[in-house]
Design brief:
Blueprint: E1 2-9, E2 13-17, E3 22-26, H1 32-40, E4 47-52, H2 60-69, E5 72-75, H3 78-87, H4 95-104, H5 121-153, H6 158-187, H7 190-200, H8 207-219, H9 225-231, E6 236-237, E7 240-241, E8 245-246, E9 250-251, H10 257-273, H11 275-286, H12 291-312, H13 319-330
Parallel strand pairs: 1-4, 4-5
Antiparallel strand pairs: 1-2, 2-3, 6-9, 7-8
Helix pairs in contact: 5-6, 5-8, 7-8, 8-10, 10-11, 10-12, 11-12
Length: 331
């Protein structure tokens, strides 16, 4: 038997509603106040299930607390909770309203959907490295665009253009140095180093792509193919209704944008250096498919193949290429 609690997470507070009363607790590292409340009101039968939204770093304390205390949770996508709030007729948005809304969402949940959060310290540290790397990539892109705009306008003095070029080069060097530091951190652990070598053995997958895939697999230890593609934002979304709405299927783009960006580059390289993927891509294009559809298909293929390589702890095997070599040797 489950006893549900809805918690709205903000930067400084946790607004709780358990179906009877509302409580407010500080959002602090150990969540001592919340822990004291849950211990004092522990149900005689059943267990707690906490429902909350992922709010980035603000919800990290609550997620870690639930993992540490083995408390089951249901982490609701903010987009889903927003639609659910509208369906309930809520016009106002306050911490109290959101906590009540999250509690009410338990009526739509299946017991099997509530699980203890998975926490990996290595995944957290790798995520911290990659988030900083992503910040540098964005900064470099913005700075380069600004530099090109200044050059095209022709009004920027030479001293400013020189400063922009210097700073752009500095950001590029910082990005390279960040990758070097991440790889040094990876090489300190034999298991992570071996996983990186296995992932980099896939044609088209370099260090950057392998790092993002490794973080995905470490953070979400799932085994379902559909879940993997959905976590990467590569799952198809279909919009059809009657005869008036019939849109072409598109990918959801719900996963990390940087992951899809590096997967796109890996797919472009993969269709050049992997015979199996090249034939698959060319076949789709010949059948009239848009080229980007073929690339997305290869992106999904890379994610699934990379997870197999990661899970089985082995190097990639190009079976089609090996088969052709054997046939040539026999002939």
């Amino acid at each position: 038997m489950y006893h549900y609690i809805g918690i709205d997470v903000s930067k400084q507070t946790l607004q709780l509603f358990d179906g009877r009363q509302e409580r407010t607790f500080p959002n602090e590292p150990q969540l001592a106040a919340l822990d004291g409340f849950l211990q004092a009101h522990q149900p005689s039968q059943g267990e707690w299930v906490i429902i909350f939204e992922p709010t980035g770093v603000y919800s990290s304390y609550l997620r870690s607390y639930c993992a540490r205390r083995c408390i089951k949770t249901h982490i609701i996508n903010p987009l889903q909770s927003a639609y659910f709030a509208k369906a309930q007729g809520h016009r106002s948005k306050t911490d109290s309203v959101d906590a009540r809304m999250l509690y009410a969402a338990h009526r739509l949940l299946q017991p099997s959907e509530s699980q203890v959060p998975y926490e990996s310290e290595q995944a957290r540290q790798l995520g911290a490295w990659l988030s900083t790397y992503t910040l540098l990539v964005k900064a470099e892109t913005q700075w380069r665009n600004h530099q090109q705009a200044a050059q095209r306008e022709g009004s920027a003095p030479p001293a400013l253009l020189e400063l922009l070029a210097t700073q752009g080069q500095h950001l590029k060097e910082q990005k390279a140095a960040m990758v070097k530091k991440i790889m040094q951190w990876i090489r300190q652990d034999e298991g992570l180093a071996q996983a990186m070598d296995h992932l980099c053995s896939i044609p088209g997958v370099g260090e950057i792509t392998a790092l993002h895939l490794l973080h995905l697999f470490m953070k979400y230890p799932v085994k379902d193919r559909n879940q993997l593609t959905a976590l990467a934002g590569l799952d198809p979304v279909v919009k059809m209704s009657g005869t008036s709405l019939h849109q072409q299927a598109k990918i959801s783009k719900r996963g990390p944008r940087m992951l899809r960006r590096v997967l796109y580059c890996a797919a472009m390289a993969g269709v050049q250096h992997n015979l199996e993927w090249k034939l698959k891509y060319q076949g789709m294009v010949q059948r009239g498919k848009v080229k980007n559809v073929g690339i997305v298909t290869i992106m999904r293929k890379i994610v699934l193949v990379a997870y197999t390589v990661y899970r089985e702890q082995r190097y990639y095997e190009d079976r089609l290429q090996d088969k052709m070599k054997k046939e040539i040797a026999i002939a």
